[in-house]
């Protein structure tokens, strides 16, 4: 007779079921304890240690020594290879057999010379399926190899995930045995865990919650773990519950396998290649059941080079639609700091790689974990064939909750893309009921969007989806009381969202992350290397393009440039250029930058030599201007013996000029020479004369006055007599702040750091005249920042230059301090303007709302400007990104001193330059944009091994100052056709027609997209070596120029 039903107490019933599936309690008699049956030790175990990353074929030839369970290996960053010899007992025929392996570190199983699965405790992959059913004729003995990298999924931090790696950490093998796996027990555990999740997630006020709890309780009643014949009855109870369907209005969750890997954050580039194989070789056994994504081309290239067999399998899964490349970029780059051209190259390299290796380009941009999103990204996406974007990082906002999960994003130029933030606020779901319910409850676009993404798989350190996650989600496919769950590709998700997008809202402008704004400043040397290498590659491409057009013998260095660009793009990953990486990765980045500099300078010299070939003139130097406007500037030209001499040179737009003879340096008219005056004690002066040691620099355009400690007391625009420095204030004021964030040390600077402001006061008498005037005037001073840190600075004013430069050297040895420099302006405006990629935007100078206040520290590229009607003050820089304008004070962030994850971050010597430019009228009309470019792209003095040209020459020029010719390069796809690609953008924020003047032998001109695909209707008429181009505000245009065949 059946037992009479009993009145159930909620807590005891819940805990009864929890104990029945617990891995900790009552495992001698509960269901979890029956997951594995009979077991036996491995037949033999041996290993060897190496500090190197060895390929499989080399590793298996090494000398393996006997090892045993419990052995230790290491230290950090080494690799331990295990040879595992197995003999499966005859009695296990007909059963599923696993190798159970538990060790610290990241393991990779090799079978028959191919990687077959990852093993990691952190990623809950602790067994490898040898066979799902041992057959009568299956071999009983086999040998596997397990490659274990001595680091965890999140590196090897000591004590926390952001701590610096512990170089002496040792690792241990704690389990290595064969065992029978009971798949029916596993499926019952999945069902019981899901029922528990439904009961707890829906709560005591929900009828369906009690149905789930009572079903689980009844399953415990009928299921005897020691008698497998009772399992089908319990399974039937679960199936009846999960078979009860929901209604048509259910929210649909699109579950996609996902593996986010923080390339370079916690492990070095070389060591980080193990997680890629570990993450994708595991899901390969699942891909017959689900679509899984990979968003970074660089990682797939590493897999291709190191694991070619795995790469071939990925290609096959991609053909079946089970492996889905997404994102379209080379790496998941930072969304703030890379230049506009670098962002284009991320897509150009990424999309071309995906097309070449997997047969198609990506239709979704996928950037789940970066620290903000530039307002130009929608236009860049459009230009690369992408209209869909997925991310989730704004869920980390510290102050304001972003109001949408599904919306249209309108960029700086008006381009719109469809954006989705997974409402579960994670890219590493595990398929739990709690996560499924959160996805629905958290959705801020209820009523406007009835579909959501659910990205499941271990992330950050890799790992990817597991079979258990997949089993959970399949069971929840359509169950009453829960949203519908379907396994989907990103294309299916976005197609569903697009089909019902009529009610979606639009967000205009940048997507600013209200967190991690310390990353605009941390690791200043990385940021300087990034900016310099962006410049070098720009210059190399331009000169190589000109040499290609003018010389039939010149070979464009396409392969070398692709390699150098990919190095730069790799280090624009969102944890590298931002400075939130470990020390070894920072050191690798600096080595990469040095490679780019070295090879780039060689390529510059080669291109310059080709440009000079056949030109009459003396041997010597070629002065090159790589910017699209004529420049007259003071240069320091090299002399024999290593000395330098100053010269005033004029170089045409994107062209070259010969070195001027010494006799042409004077007179300087119409420019006024620079005058330098220092107030000093003199016997001829009457006593009332002020003799405080201050210095005045004056070039007839601006007049600069420095007090005896180097602070700026006056900056006057000479023509109007307008003072730029606020009354009673001083500029060039260095300030020091305490900088202790809540947790994310290298990442965050908190608003409360502003309450700890301490001006750094200099000592009178340290200011001295440097260069005494004429072409250049300067003054320099020393400043003791603290007992451990010091600064020296030269303040420089050149003839004809509209800005004063501050060449700065800092020896920085601090802990949790933040150094900035401030310029209080005699300007009033509620908005300041900041340069971003291919344009600029405004941000408030006040804290009216929480959205304003949350932007107390923002990012900019080469300049920021504070203007009122008729006058403004711009602050330019050559390698800084952190900035702010509060009220009328322009502040440039210089150096931080975080101690995690890299305790050495920013310690040591730094050199950088910033500049101050007062101007009449708007910053557009005053040439601030051009001035910032000039500061960042100095004129080049390149050696000419053959006779240097005797006359100036210009390749390109523009009729409008509103348009910038940003890039000139060879086309990617058709080197035989001798084609160039030009990239231009409208920089003022205006509609404008512009004539592009060409001096190259151009046969045909065609508009193309950012991937260099020609527009069928984009043919442009060439009139008298000119092309007419029409721009809307901040529009980016690309041109394909087909060059005439070279003369034979």
From TrEMBL:
Compartment(s) of residence: Cytoplasm
Gene Ontology annotations of biological process type: mannose metabolic process; oligosaccharide catabolic process
Catalytic activity: Hydrolysis of terminal, non-reducing alpha-D-mannose residues in alpha-D-mannosides
GO molecular function: alpha-mannosidase activity; carbohydrate binding; metal ion binding
Domain named Glycoside hydrolase family 38 central: residues: 514-593
Residues of the signal peptide: none
Predominant cellular place of this UniProt entry's protein: cytoplasm
GO cellular-component term (any): cytoplasm
Family listed: Belongs to the glycosyl hydrolase 38 family.
Name used for this protein in its record: Alpha-mannosidase 2C1
Organism: Macaca nemestrina
């Amino acid at each position: 007779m059946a037992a009479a039903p009993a009145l159930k107490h909620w807590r005891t019933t819940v805990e009864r079921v929890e104990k029945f599936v617990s891995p900790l309690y009552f495992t001698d008699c509960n269901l979890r304890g029956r997951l594995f049956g009979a077991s036996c030790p491995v037949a033999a175990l041996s290993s060897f240690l190496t500090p190197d990353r060895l390929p499989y074929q080399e590793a298996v030839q090494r000398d393996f020594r006997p090892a045993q369970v419990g052995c230790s290996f290491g230290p950090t960053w080494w690799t331990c290879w295990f040879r595992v010899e197995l003999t499966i007992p005859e009695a296990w025929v007909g059963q599923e057999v696993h190798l159970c392996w538990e060790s610290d570190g990241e393991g990779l199983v090799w079978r028959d010379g191919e990687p077959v699965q990852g093993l990691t405790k952190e990623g809950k992959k602790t067994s490898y399926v040898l066979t799902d059913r041992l057959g009568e004729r299956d071999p009983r003995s086999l040998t596997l190899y397990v490659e274990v990298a001595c680091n965890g999924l999140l590196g090897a931090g000591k004590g926390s995930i952001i701590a610096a790696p512990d170089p002496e950490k040792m690792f241990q093998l704690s389990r290595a045995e064969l065992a029978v796996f009971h798949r029916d027990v596993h499926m019952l555990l999945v069902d019981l865990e899901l029922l528990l999740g439904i009961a707890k997630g829906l709560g005591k006020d929900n009828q369906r919650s009690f149905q789930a709890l009572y079903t689980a309780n009844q399953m415990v009643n009928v299921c005897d773990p020691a008698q497998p014949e009772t399992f089908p009855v319990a399974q039937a109870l679960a199936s009846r519950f999960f078979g009860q369907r929901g209604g048509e209005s259910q929210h649909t969750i699109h579950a996609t396998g996902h593996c986010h890997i923080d390339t370079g954050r916690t492990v070095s580039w070389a060591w980080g290649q193990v997680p890629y194989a570990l993450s994708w070789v595991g899901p390969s056994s699942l891909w017959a059941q689900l679509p899984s994504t990979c968003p970074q081309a660089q990682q797939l290239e590493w897999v291709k080079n190191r694991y070619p067999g795995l790469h071939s399998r990925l290609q096959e899964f991609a053909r079946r639609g089970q492996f889905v490349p997404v994102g379209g970029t080379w790496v998941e780059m930072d969304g703030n700091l890379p230049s506009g051209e670098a962002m284009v190259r991320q897509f150009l390299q990424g999309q071309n790689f995906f097309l070449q290796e997997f047969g198609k380009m990506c239709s979704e941009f996928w950037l789940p974990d970066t620290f903000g999103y530039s307002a130009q990204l929608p236009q860049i996406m459009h230009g690369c064939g992408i209209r869909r974007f997925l991310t989730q990082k704004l869920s980390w906002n510290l102050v304001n909750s972003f109001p949408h999960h599904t919306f249209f994003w309108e960029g700086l130029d008006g381009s719109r893309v469809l954006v989705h933030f997974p409402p579960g606020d994670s890219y590493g779901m595990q398929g739990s009921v709690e996560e499924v319910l959160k996805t629905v409850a958290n959705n801020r676009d209820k009523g406007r969007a009835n579909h959501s993404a659910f990205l499941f798989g271990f992330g950050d350190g890799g790992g990817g989806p597991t079979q258990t996650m997949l089993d959970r989600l399949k069971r929840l496919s359509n169950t009453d009381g829960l949203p519908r769950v379907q396994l989907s590709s990103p294309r299916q998700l976005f197609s569903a969202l697009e089909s019902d997008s009529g009610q979606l809202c639009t967000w205009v402008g940048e997507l600013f992350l209200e967190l991690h704004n310390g990353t605009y400043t941390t690791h200043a040397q990385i940021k300087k290397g990034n900016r310099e290498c962006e410049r070098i590659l720009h210059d190399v491409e331009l000169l190589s393009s000109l040499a290609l057009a003018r010389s039939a013998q010149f070979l464009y260095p396409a392969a070398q440039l692709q390699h150098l660009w990919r190095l730069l793009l790799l280090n624009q990953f969102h944890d590298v250029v931002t400075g939130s990486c470990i020390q070894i990765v920072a050191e690798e980045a600096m080595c990469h930058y040095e490679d780019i500099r070295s090879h780039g300078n060689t390529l510059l010299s080669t291109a310059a030599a080709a440009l000079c070939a056949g030109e009459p003139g003396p041997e010597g130097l070629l002065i090159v201007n790589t910017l699209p406007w004529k420049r007259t500037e003071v240069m320091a030209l090299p002399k024999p013996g290593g000395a330098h001499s100053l010269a005033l040179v004029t170089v045409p737009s994107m062209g070259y000029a010969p070195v001027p003879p010494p006799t042409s340096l004077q007179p300087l008219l119409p420019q006024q020479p620079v005058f330098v005056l220092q107030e000093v004690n003199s016997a001829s002066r009457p006593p009332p004369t002020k003799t405080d040691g201050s210095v005045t620099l004056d070039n007839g355009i601006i007049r600069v006055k420095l007090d005896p400690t180097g602070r700026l007391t006056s900056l006057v625009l000479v023509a109007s007599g307008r003072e730029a420095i606020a009354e009673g204030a001083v500029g060039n004021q260095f300030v020091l702040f305490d900088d202790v964030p809540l947790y994310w040390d290298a990442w965050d600077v908190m608003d409360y750091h502003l309450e700890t402001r301490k001006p750094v006061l200099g000592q009178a008498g340290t200011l001295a005249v440097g260069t005494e005037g004429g072409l250049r005037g300067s003054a320099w001073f020393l400043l003791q920042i603290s007992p451990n840190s010091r600064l020296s600075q030269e303040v420089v004013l050149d003839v004809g230059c509209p800005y004063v430069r501050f060449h700065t050297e800092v020896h920085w040895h601090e802990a949790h301090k933040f150094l900035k420099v401030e310029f209080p302006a005699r300007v009033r405006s509620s908005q300041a303007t900041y340069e971003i990629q291919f344009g600029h935007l405004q941000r408030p100078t006040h804290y009216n709302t929480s959205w304003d206040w949350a932007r107390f520290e923002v990012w900019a590229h080469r300049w920021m400007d504070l203007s009122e009607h008729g006058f403004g003050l711009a602050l330019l820089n050559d390698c800084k990104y952190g900035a702010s304008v509060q009220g009328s004070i322009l502040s440039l962030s210089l150096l931080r001193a975080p101690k995690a994850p890299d305790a050495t971050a920013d310690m040591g010597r730094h050199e950088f330059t910033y500049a101050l430019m007062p101007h009449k009228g708007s910053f557009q009309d005053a040439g601030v944009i051009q001035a910032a470019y000039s500061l960042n792209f100095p004129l080049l003095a390149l050696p000419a091994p053959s006779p240097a040209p005797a006359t100036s020459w210009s390749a390109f020029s523009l009729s409008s100052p509103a348009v910038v010719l940003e890039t000139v390069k060879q086309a990617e796809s058709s080197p035989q056709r001798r084609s160039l690609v030009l990239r231009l953008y409208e920089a003022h924020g205006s509609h404008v027609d512009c004539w592009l003047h060409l001096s190259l032998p151009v046969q045909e001109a065609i508009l193309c997209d950012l991937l260099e695909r020609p527009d069928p209707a984009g043919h442009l008429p060439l009139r008298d070596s000119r092309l007419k181009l029409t721009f809307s505000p901040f529009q980016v245009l690309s041109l394909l120029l087909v060059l005439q065949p070279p003369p034979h």
